[in-house]
Amino acid sequence: MKHLLFLCFLLIADNCANAQTSMNETKKTYALVIHGGAGNIMPDNLPKELQERYKISLEKALAAGEQILSSGGAAIDAVQAAIMVMEDDSLFNAGKGSVYTNEEKIEMDASIMDGKDLNAGAVAGVTTIKNPIMGARYVMDKSKHVMLSGKGAEHFAKDNDLEIVKPDYFETQYNKKDIKKIKEREGKKSSLPVDKDAYSKYGTVGAVAMDINGNLAAGTSTGGMANKKFGRIGDSPIIGAGTYADNSSCAVSCTGWGEYFIRLVLAKSVCDRMSLQGLNLRAAVDVMIHDKLENMGATGGVIAIDKNGNIVMDFNTSGMYRAWMKSNGERGVKMFE
Ligand code: ASP
Known about the structure:
Elements: H1 2-27, E1 31-39, H2 48-70, H3 75-87, E2 108-114, E3 119-126, H4 132-142, E4 147-149, H5 150-159, H6 173-186, E5 205-210, E6 216-222, E7 243-245, E8 250-256, H7 258-263, H8 266-275, H9 281-295, E9 300-306, E10 311-315, E11 319-326, E12 331-336
Parallel strand pairs: 3-4
Antiparallel strand pairs: 1-5, 1-11, 2-3, 2-6, 5-6, 7-8, 8-9, 9-10, 11-12
């Protein structure tokens, strides 16, 4: 009888332990933040109908990443999925909808980073890869390199059966008109590779995520700055400048005036301010955007997530297209301050 009671006790204890484990498992959290560019985005210059279109697109991109995270998928896959949705949408300055260079061509940049092992991939100045973020992911997964550019990147993408399209796939009437206007305004004034004032379309896209295993990831994709010259490359494909992810601190995706983000190594600096200076995520982002970037006279924004799933979306422009969700049900879409 004593033995029987002891056996019952063991069985109950085992069941309790199993219940505890599965409770812990279901308690595991995840989160995703996306952006669709920062700039002079205000209710006055964004008609209601366009606001609605942005809202729908951001929600669609968020849902694509959320689906992966909620079914236990990896942060890196969620980041890629969310960015691909925005690259396929001509509203954004990434993939289809990318802005024109001074030569009236389209040259795109993208990067992705896995915070689990600091693995990263990037493509720069590509003209035919349908989804540049996929190009970046393939560089990370299927090559020994971190960044491939131009023709070489396209060759690599083709060899690896990535979808290749004709350059006119990326063209939009809006951007075609826009580059003409920019050039008119520019006149003979500027011979700089990038003229800030001549930069009118916002819509670089990015995502940061934390999955149920606590892995962080970040990615960014862009057509760059409109009217860019001489093969200009911005911060978006530069690991450390426009994108960074490290499980021990945070994951960051940037948007804004790329030259300054490069000079400040902005994305990695946010992570370093956390790990080396002991700042929390909000404070780390605050220093980099409202002190460092602002003091250089530059504008832009970041989305970031830390290893505990805290999220920050901050910018020193009038707006930034953004959306976020957490496994606790918190979610939202915003454009303005
Ligand atoms: N950072 C991008 C670049 O400089 C542009 C942007 O985010 O709007 O290429």
